[in-house]
UniProtKB/TrEMBL annotation:
Domain of life: Bacteria
Record PROSITE patterns: CB, TYR_RECOMBINASE
Family: Belongs to the 'phage' integrase family.
Taxonomic placement: Bacteria, Pseudomonadati, Bacteroidota, Bacteroidia, Bacteroidales
Alphabetical list of InterPro entries matching this protein: CB, DNA_brk_join_enz, Integrase-like_cat_sf, Integrase_catalytic, Tyrosine_recombinase_XerCD
Domain Tyr recombinase stretches: 213-401
Keyword terms, alphabetized: DNA integration, DNA recombination, DNA-binding
Record has Amino-acid biosynthesis as a keyword: no
Domain (Core-binding (CB)) ranges: 109-189
This protein's name: Site-specific integrase
Amino acid sequence: MYKKNKQITEVIDEYRYELIDRDYNKGTIQTYSKICRTIRKWWDEKGLEEFNEVNAFRFCDEFIGTRYLSVSLTSDQKRTLRVIRMILSVYRGDDFENISPSEKKSFKTKLGEVFEKYIEWCALSLKLSSNTLETHTRVALKYDSYLWERGLHLEDASTPIFEDFITAESKSNRIRYKAVLRNIYRFLHNSQITKGDLSMFILREPQTSQGSKLTTTYTEEEVRNLISSVDRSTSSGKRDYLILLLASEYGMRASDIRSLSLKHINWESNTISFNQQKTEVPISYPLIPSIGNAIIDYLKYGRPPGGDDVIVVRHDSKRKGHQVTSSGIYSIVESAFKAANIPNWREKKHGPHSLRHSFASNLLKRGAGYYIISMAMGHSHTNTTRTYLNIDIERLRKCSLQIPVIHSVHYANIGKEVINDQAYS
């Protein structure tokens, strides 16, 4: 339990020390300290001294206008909301919130009456992952609000309504939203809630070329420099070194790195096996010596005792021993890039996923086959692996065609005045 009667100055001081302890940069600390002075000034104007949840939420409601994140808030209001909620987290003894929570939404149409059964059907029959189920929930809530604001019902579905609902969305979101709505309306039809299958009114998005967007990758030498930049003499350095190895040697996603536990390691068979967080597809890696030794070194000489049942944990004072967040792993990898000073790293993607892409790219350069790379990456569909074929420049050069010599007078005299008869000779 947190202490219930703390003075505002005491809580703000604890908050500032926490920012320093977490290595927030000087500019951010100065910005947040300025907001703290604004908060303290409001407390004084209201004649308040004690900091508690009631006063904190009163500040949000009266000074900001809301205690939840909203698109209508200005940048200053969003920062102020974040700071007061971070201070509230310190007061409670909890971890900082990564983002201020948005206002909780609820269903207003008949969709809310059946949505729980729909999610259960998706989980049991379609075997959708928890992340995908969250996406379905977000889309359904947005669609529900769309119908409610226009006085429409589920049965009023039509092609113009569906197209208007997604008209402002990106192409990827349009495809995603339509897939969710198709599922929902097929479920409603199969459950005899709607007359007929209204999913037939949802048009498929036209197929368009996605261009030649290339994946961010780093060479094997750059990855080695990145890993060697970590100071392994400290406890947090041993953790960061392990994170970089898992991302670069296995191509593991941040969500899998943060969830890795001793129960996933078979020391007798020298394997690491688990179901991937994103896809829930099982994957197994050979426990190579560099990673095995890094795990042992961290567990024996770096990891704080106790905490969550995972290998990689936090080292900051408030949440020592707790599971690292995915954004925390991103920050660790980004700090390593900064320390290694790899050329142009700021202009490129430099999170853990860039190391995953580099892992695939470097396998390709070594001559690994398409299927092998797909298996090593743990892709649920081999089509996903095709992205990496675009970055094998050396092999693509072998597929290039020589431009034929053109003998037309038209091309030989570009920029000159040519007689019509000559242009077709």
